[in-house]
Design brief:
The chain has 115 residues and is mainly α. The chain is 75% helix and 0% strand. InterPro entries: Prolamin-like.
């Protein structure tokens, strides 16, 4: 239970950091707010943590999250990962993270199509 609580806490911290920097990106603020409201309701907190772990920490995703990621949509997925990868402490490896993100997307699409 403690691990789950720490994962939820980490998710909210990541989301707060990402939301704090939304105006700094090329997407206009109103569009970014709509994107956040649209994207965040399509995926469970557990799957969001799995996706973040898979892209940024060499973690693994669980089967139900493949479909959640595809339902979230490519634009949402790319935008959220790009926001996180652009942070100063991660930007040195941004290219690696974006490639992992694309590979994850392709894998999830292939799994969801075969299901």
């Amino acid at each position: 239970m403690s691990k789950f609580n720490s994962q939820i806490t980490m998710l909210f911290i990541v989301l707060a950091l990402v939301c704090a920097f939304v105006p700094a990106f090329s997407i206009e603020e109103a569009e970014a707010n709509l994107l956040w409201k649209t994207c965040l309701v399509k995926i469970t907190p557990k799957c969001a943590l799995d996706i973040i772990a898979a892209v940024f920490e060499n973690g693994t995703m669980h089967d139900p999250c493949y479909n959640d990621l595809v339902k979230e949509g490519k634009v949402c997925h790319d935008t959220l990962i790009k926001y996180i990868a652009d942070k100063p402490m991660l930007i040195a490896h941004e290219t690696e993270y974006l490639k992992k993100s694309d590979d994850l997307w392709k894998h999830c699409v292939s799994i969801s199509k075969s299901a």
